[in-house]
Amino acid sequence: MMINRLQELLAGIPELAAWRFSDRQIQGQELFFVRREVDMQRSKDVRRTYLTVYRDFQEGDKKYRGSVAVQIHPTYTAAEIRALIEQSLNSARYVRNQHYPLVEPGLEVPQMPASSFASRPLEEWLGPLAETIYAQEDSEKARINSAELFLNRIDNRIVNSHGLDVSYRSYSGYLELIVEDDGKAGEVELYRELSFSEFQPEVLAAEVRDQLHRCRDRGAAGATPHLKRFPVLITGDPVPDFFEYYLTQSSAQSVYYGISTAKVGESIQGDAIAGDTLSLTLEPFLKNSPSSAPVDVDGFALKPTRIIDAGKLERYWGPVRFCHYLDVPPTGAIGNVVVQPGTKTLDELREEPHLEVVYFSAFVSEPLTGDFGGEIRLAYHTDEDGKRHPVTGGSVSGNIRDVESHLRFSRETRSCAGFQGPLSVLLPEISVSGAASTGL
Amino acid sequence: MNVPLSAYLARIKEPLKGLAETLSKDFPYVSVLSTDSTGMLFSVRKRAIDVRQSNWCERGSVIRAFDGRRYLEYSFNDLEEGSLNDIESLAGTIRERLRTSSAVSGRLPFGIPELPSISEQPLSETWQGEVEILPEAVQQIVGRLSRLKDRAFELSEHLVEIEVRFEHMRVSKLFVSGKRELEQSYIWAQGYLIPVLRRDRTIREMFASYSGLKGMELIDEMEAGLEETMIVGGQLLDAERIEPGEYEVILSPNIAGLLAHESFGHGVELDMFVKGRAKAAEYLGKSVASPMVSLRDGARAAEQTGTYWFDDEGVLGGDTLVIQEGIFRTGISDLLSAMRLGSPPSGNGKRESFERKAYARMTNTFFTAGKDSLEEMIASIKNGYLLEQFLSGMEDPKNWGIQGQILYAREIRDGRLTGKLVSPLFMFGYVPDVLSSVSMVSGEVMRFGTGMCGKGHKEYVKNSLGGPYIKTVMRLG
Which residues of chain A does B424 touch, with a Cβ-Cβ cutoff of 8 Å? Predict the structure, then answer.
């Protein structure tokens, strides 16, 4: 109804060179727990429709395409929509962007795999999910403090004025889980968020058990020693963030903006790689990933695409617009990243003295400069004698460009929201600041 | 100039009152929050211009209902045309959604907290903000941002890219319950200068931000700040990494604000007390900081992007003295947390949008002024740093850690700024240690309202933070 009304309103406007809209109808169920009580239950039925209008113009020999993107709320009247289109088209004349094409229909769109959540009404999944989470509490010592559970069913549709019309259904689950432990020096907690798109109770249970176990370790942890420069193994949740740098460096948008100088066919991992080489593929579909989609926001049909092979940039990735600017084939904006694991097992990577960080307060990785770091909430320090101690506090920091030629990736892999790749990455000596005072 | 009220909210006010009244036959308490917030984002780069509606735009409603045992909420925006003319039918749909939710949680093997129905004092008010110039002229905005971009390239041979961004929002909200009818409309704006500079293999990104309950006049401030931004950006190309360790530091008002926000901002959100996640709960009425330290939070405590007249639960915005001369006095609360703790709500119940739950959130959070001068502070430090411009921060309310990502710091040796910069760096500390170590506080408070604040890693809302220059001791790395 809404789409038809929009199409009718867009028809016959002379200045309108093209248009595209994306429509998302979202049904959501949410549960909020404080310990073992349901603090609140929420549900929602919302619709988000975004319209982009394009206006073409020419100055001398140069062709431009101006665009303005606006949200069309379902309660807009026809008069409000008409006024918004008119304002947007008027504004688009000041947006002097190099001309680029829209996605054309006709490309084969892959089928979105059905989620296990599709088999029942959304609200009926809340019980099984919540019971799976809380069943993992195995002691009074490490326990669940609070949890927030969200489950959305999303009907997506992308339509443009060139005849493209693509629809698919996706599911998005999200858990914020806080666990706590009495600890040797007072209560401690660990915060974690998990995203999912399938009902996989064994995966969810394992993640919750792991968090409870880690929280017990944080409760028993000592202070991180001041190790100055030391090998650091990062494990688990921070690993996908670490690889963001390579995604930014290889994106057509970054190259067009001049903030990446990466060149196809050349090493993107520094000179003389002495560690594992990086191979990175973008995948439209990854099991249990809410980022999976058959098309990107422009409606471009996605397929698995190798971006980096053995440390060498194979191709730029990006939406139609920026790939057109660079005169390279578009890949679309693909939501999942797959990184090839390394050659050594985690046990082998742990053989030498190192610090293995499993939880940061917030791991920060700057995709432009390569700077990274964060405060340690839980790490394991393996000393010269091979003993492994849980530690907390202190920080690590470094720059990817200083360490990239000596990276080691674990052979063990892990899948989480939008990522599949090595469970751990070993960084050669980087800066480790201890938790204790280091002297004025 | 008065910010106009939303015509849409005016149109649906009476039907919504009817909806609340109809639902009240089945639920002891019902409220409706409706939003109609609009705004635009303009981004000008070297080779691209982006004009689109701001991500903060929203138009929709959320119903909160108490069924006698539990609080339930339903968010919606997809009203069929004419549905507001048939309130009985709309109420029937919403009633069914709420009852389905109630039945689902009733079947779960979990308890329910005992809470009474919300009790409100009658109030009917309308508020309108004011700005100097309403931000409406697209051609003028794009033109001024483009000239800023061109000027930046004239100022530095090392500039490879700059994003000049300006965003404005008109926030309009209507709250209706059995006893309350509140409406507000105000404008905030924010702007960014983000130059990227490269020399040989060194690449650095500078960041300057501007914000306020302002309109077009904010672009004047961006224009005035460009030259200094480019100078510091150039200096960043020579910046080195810091030697990790504990240092005497001066926090700029921007970084002091981050400390306020992450320590006794997130740390005293009273929904964290309900969950038993806040260490601050053990320190009510006790010393948590140097006597030089006082901290406030409140939607009406300052005029910045955290300002509003009523929160998303229909409670009037307040001005809370959180720390008074080093003593922790009280926290900030949403309505339901205040009810559970038996304390008055402080007007801090905020939602990311009508689609999301209300939580206890900060508004305008800042340390109050002292009596020292920045010059005296610098002169008092033998080996330390003046920290400038945060990029991000993370709270740890249970264990009172604080992490801040800082763009750069200026080196101080023997009481003088050496001109050397270190970048980037992290600051860390244990909140009571950092606040107890405060030894000097300057006399002027500055506030910053760009960006957004999450609760954990979600529920992003606008607020502001700030303070004077503050001297303390922190770990840097």
Answer: 366, 369, 371
